[in-house]
Amino acid sequence: MDFIAAIDQGTTSTRCLVFDHDGRIISSAQKEHKQIFPSPGWVEHDPMEILNNSREVFNKAVLKIDPAADKIKALGITNQRETTVLWNKATGKPYGNAIVWQDTRTENICSELQVRGYKDLFQQKTGLPIATYFSGPKIRWLIENNDEIKKDFMSGQVLFGNIDSWLVWNFTGGINDGVHCTDVTNASRTMLMNLETLTWDEELLNILEVPSKILPEIKPSVSQFGVMRWNDNQIPITGVLGDQQAALFGQVCFDPGDTKNTYGTGCFMLLNTGEKMIRSTQGLLTTVGYQFNGEKPVYCLEGSIAITGALVQWLRDNLGIINNSKDIENLAKTVEDNGGIYFVPAFSGLFAPYWKPDARGLIIGLTRYANKGHIARAALEATAFQSRELLDAMLKDSGVSLNLIKVDGGMVNNELLMQFQADILNVPVIRPNITETTALGVAYAAGLSVGYWNGIDDLRLKWKEDHRWLPEMDNKKRECLYSDWKRAVERSFNWNREDKLD
After folding, report:
1. Are β-strands 217-219 and 3-9 bridged in parallel, bridged antiparallel, or unpaired?
2. Angle at 128 (CA atoms; ends 124, 129), nearest 5 degrees
3. Domain boundaries, the chain
């Protein structure tokens, strides 16, 4: 037998999974990396730690297969999107830490772009609002705040990439002719790529003062990206997808109207709109879902939530009310309802559909009746309420009638959350048999590129349902709970003031 390997470089950890022809996991390895918080609202990762971890988990996962050398037919890479790295192509060293997608330090840059009247221009060309979320403003910030970067521009030594580009460049040789490239899904998250031409947009580059020579080549998601040099072997890298697009692929959402929701550090809902590009009027993103080499791209509407699983980690690490993330379900089950408590986790502002960088987290509705069980339940319900906001916006933008939603990610094993999600959305929620859909999706992409699978119809046959949650809540209660959630969200707005005392 032979296999396809996938590296899933996420916000909190890096994993490598090896899949067989049936999409089954043959081996895996995982390693967490440090979360760095230099200032309020700032989030960083060490690119060298991520690179070293990626190599380590690949070695561990692949070496579990004996003999492994000639059994890996291709490698796919999927990654946390928007997290921004600048590095020197002569030394291979990054210019400091990567700025993570959750980071809000570029708020002033984004505000300036808004004041200068560029909101509609960026929205029209990129499908994205002007927001701290995306890579372009992060590049601008790094250029403005690092003298070494300014100096090295003169000698043409600076390279930019999201994490996919950083890994591909290093895996294919690094300073020895490493391939500097990205795929359309990651490029579509920079605020710099034109959605129609699938090329870097010169007008936007000029506005943000980002030199085009530092940018990677944009390639289709399912294509040849280069060759990974591993021991004495060469493994082709033939699939690259941003993590949420990879999950869409892994859930075999290949038809217009297919919808998935991924519950990870944040929460990301994608609706396949086919070759039709729908411009959102409801605060959603228009993004590239995937592209096969030589074919037209498939577009999506996306709703992005910054904090979902990260809220559970915060309860564990910052408040200490649980010892392990999985403990939150049992704690939430100690109470019958949220006790009137709503938890708005606007730690990095609010993403879709609000795009409020000045919002901050709050817990509201507290009385002496409340206990940590109510807080735990409110934290889980926050994920479901935020997903309802995304779905409502999607239905308004697309006009589709949704019959079900496929779910994946670490939180889908929380049965309390999944039942509440079905209740609040009022549609069936379906978990697949293989929930590692992000890694599976990019493995599918890489395998299709080398003929390991015969096409998307072959992949459709491999998708199996594991569990289905049906709505049980009556409509009056559903709308009452959701109405109170909306009131809580409004109270989180405009908290981060620019006129605060030093």
Report:
1. unpaired
2. 95
3. 3-242
Dist. CA 422–CA 501, nearest whole Å: 45
Q: Distances from the Cα of 324 to the Cαs of 82, 247, 308, 378, 413, in angstroms? A: 28, 25, 16, 17, 14
Cα distance between residue 447 and residue 73, in whole Å: 8
| CA dihedral sign of residues 83, 35, 7, 68 | positive
| Residue 90 DSSP class | T
Q: Are residues 249 and 442 in contact, defined by beta-carbon separation less than 8 angstroms? A: yes
Q: Mark residue 478 as left, alpha or beta (left: phi above 0; alpha: psi -120 to 50; beta: remaining).
A: alpha
How does pLDDT run along the chain (502 residues), one tens digit per residue? 789 999 999 998 999 999 999 888 999 999 999 999 999 889 999 999 999 999 999 999 988 886 555 688 999 999 999 999 999 999 999 999 999 998 989 989 999 999 999 999 999 999 998 989 899 999 999 999 988 898 888 778 999 999 999 999 999 999 999 999 999 999 999 999 999 999 999 999 999 999 999 999 999 999 999 999 887 788 999 999 999 999 999 999 999 989 999 998 888 899 999 999 998 888 899 999 999 998 999 999 999 888 888 899 899 989 899 998 889 999 999 999 999 999 999 988 888 889 888 899 999 999 999 999 999 999 999 999 999 999 999 999 988 878 889 999 888 999 999 999 999 999 999 999 887 889 999 999 999 999 999 888 989 988 889 999 999 999 999 999 999 999 999 999 988 765 554 4
pTM: 0.86
CA distance 333 to 331: 5
CA distances from 267 to 108, 407, 409, 486, 487 (A): 25, 10, 9, 18, 21
Which distant-in-sequence residues (6+ apart) come within 8 Å of 89 by Cβ?
Answer: 157, 158, 159, 175, 178, 180
**What is the identity of the amino acid at 269?**
M
Element (H, E) at 233: strand 233-242
Which fold does the domain 3-242 belong to in CATH?
A: Nucleotidyltransferase; domain 5 (3.30.420)
Cα–Cα–Cα angle for 340, 392, 301, rounded to 5 degrees: 130
According to DSSP, the β-strands at 25-32 and 217-219 are unpaired
Burial label for 70, CB within 10 Å (0-12, 13-18, 19+), is exposed
Residue/partner pairs of 274-280 with CB below 8 Å, 24 or more apart: 274/298, 274/299, 275/299, 277/127, 277/195, 277/196, 278/397, 278/398, 279/123, 279/124, 279/127, 280/127, 280/393, 280/397
